[in-house]
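# nightly structure sweep
# worker-07 picked up a monomer target from the shared queue
# config: single-sequence mode, recycle default, output format = structure tokens
# input follows
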Amino acid sequence: MSKADVLQLVDELARGRADLGACEKYYTDIAYEMAKAGLITNASIIELTADTGSYTFPDDAVDIVGILYDGVHLMPSMKQAIEWKDSGWRDRRGAPQAYVIEDEQDRTFRLYPKPDADTGFLGGTFRFGENYPPYSALMLYTQNREDLPEVFDLYIVCTILSREFTRESDHRDLEFASAAQQLAQLFLQMANHG
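# output follows
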């Protein structure tokens, strides 16, 4: 279901007592929490430019799960470890072997060494694990998005109901909130094992 449909179901189950503004914020918070927990992921091809080491996360990315360069998994590394191995690491060119996020601007990563070739032609359709353009990076990341996979709908609905009926309000109902939270955990387990 879309975000709007999930919020409509919350309103119906709350029998019109829920604050829909608060519920919309709960939905946004839950989507971000699910991304941070690694439940929502995506992959994106990052177009690389020769002699450029720093790249920006896709707009919907929360955290990096992994980065591949020309089909090879790059190792995450600490800046200090690379500096110990190679004091001129920021100027080094070649096929990237690692990436660093430490000391980079927010939502950016740096490849080590920086690529010595531009990404090949990006036209066409790509299948996961196949036919990527040469000299490109594939970033796997946790994703923050508005409409979440339908398998999580009941978990989200029950979590929103639990939060809404726990907060101080004229409709606070801790027994209902507790039952909704228990159902939310059951639905999450079902979604993860489904």
